[in-house]
Amino acid sequence: MGRVAGSVVAVGRSEGHSFSKPNLDGIRLVAGIGVEGDTHAGVTVQHRSRVAQDPTQPNLRQVHLMHQELFEELAEAGFAVAPGDLGENVTTRGVDLLGLPVGALLRLGEDAVVEVTGLRNPCAQIDDFQRGLLKQLVRRAEDGSLIRRAGIMGVVRSGGEIRPGDGVTVTLPPEPHRPLDRV
């Protein structure tokens, strides 16, 4: 399917609309739905702001992934952020999540496959979690464009169990690659 790029550090889900997600021993992904038992699982949008705009939109944010290396970088800047704190379902190591194109496939563990749909758009709740953190996760490029660093979103193409320690395999889509934008 592709090359093993990294590993799963932590997994989590939350049944309610809480900001953080508790770490678990494992989660189950369900094709076309998301993380079983997670408040954001569903065929159509589940995020409150998106539901308010149009509840019939397809859910392109079934799974939220972040990279452990970002938490280490944030620690150097004086922020304490651990897996699950920012609401992600899967924390990885060794995968350049933000550098992936739209349509990249991530095999997580033996069976689960997530198709990358775009970037998480960080919200003001991040500063409620830790003041000043939002500025670390959204920056301006030299051309003035926004650089979003709060992880990526995806949809589940094949279901399966995911546990910490599982491998992450990346398969890129055919070129030309489309860079990630917020979803």
UniProtKB/TrEMBL annotation:
Q: Which domain of life is it from?
A: Bacteria
One of the entry's Gene Ontology molecular-function terms is: pyridoxal phosphate binding
Q: Which InterPro entries match?
A: MoCF_Sase_C, MOSC_domain, Pyrv_Knase-like_insert_dom_sf
- Record-linked Gene3D superfamilies: PK beta-barrel domain-like
Region described as Disordered: spans on this chain: 164-183
Give residue ranges for domain MOSC.
22-171
Cited Pfam families:
MOSC (PF03473)
Q: Sorted alphabetically, which PANTHER family does this protein's record hold?
A: METAL-SULFUR CLUSTER BIOSYNTHESIS PROTEINS YUAD-RELATED, MOSC DOMAIN-CONTAINING PROTEIN
In Swiss-Prot or TrEMBL terms, this protein is called MOSC domain-containing protein
Q: Which organism is it from?
A: Kitasatospora setae (strain ATCC 33774 / DSM 43861 / JCM 3304 / KCC A-0304 / NBRC 14216 / KM-6054)
